[in-house]
Known about the structure:
Layout: H1 3-36, H2 43-50, H3 52-85, H4 88-99, H5 106-117, H6 122-129, H7 143-167, H8 171-179, H9 184-195, H10 197-212, H11 216-222, H12 229-238, H13 243-268
Helix pairs in contact: 1-13, 2-13, 3-4, 3-7, 3-10, 5-7, 5-11, 7-10, 7-11, 8-9, 10-13, 12-13
Amino acid sequence: MSKPMKSALVLLGPLLAFLMLAYVFPFLGILRWSFTLPELGLGNYADALTDPLVLSVFGRTLRVCVIVTLVSVASAYVITLLWVRGGPVQRLVMELCILIPFWISVLTRAFGWLALLSNRGLINTWLQGIGLTSDPLTMVRNEFGVVVGMAHFLIPFAVFPLASAVRNLDERVLLAARGMGAGRQRVFWTVFLPMTAPGILGAALIVFVFALGFFVTPAILGGGRSVMVAELVYLRIFQSPNWGLGAAISVILMIGVAFLMGALMKAVRPGEKS
């Protein structure tokens, strides 16, 4: 083994040991529970894939994650364009909009949206005060509130891969398209957007993977009526004596996340052959 390789292993050793202790060993314990509790076998996986309640939660989770991904990536794309290609004032405002959310905890943000969207919240009070609505709109304890809270949290994470794709654009291609008579809209839809497609795909996969594991925001804004997979695992582990089923659901979710991360790695390195 060469000396640089030995040095790299020495430097990476503590990190690898930490990852083993913090992630690999606990996951192996969860994997063991999924096959052994309450009895040895594949019964927990059979229940997870046939139980109507579990399947409905999986379906709701996928539906919410897809909606959140679409909303987050579309919003992030507009923010990215203003941040990367806008004027100095626009860039400053966008930078603040991107960075400030990272300074606020997810719990604080969830309760903030609860205060805004609840039946007696600021938005409903304002709508009723100006006469636009007579009864309060139901915007929390449902999927709408969950989507709003999750999208607000995830938009900044979608901005960075999009910003990288936009910054790496070859301006000469855009100028060539304009020089050949294409208008701004045609340049955007036929040249600009396709050239940033890898960034869009990367942002979508990042947002979708993060959304799959959301717990706090759906629990607060969903009010127990829009249970997602992470909350279901919590309920099975801590509020009902069905640890094996909770572990099996966790393993299925982990496999799904690993598959999506593999797709992400392939998307950000499209030139590599498998």
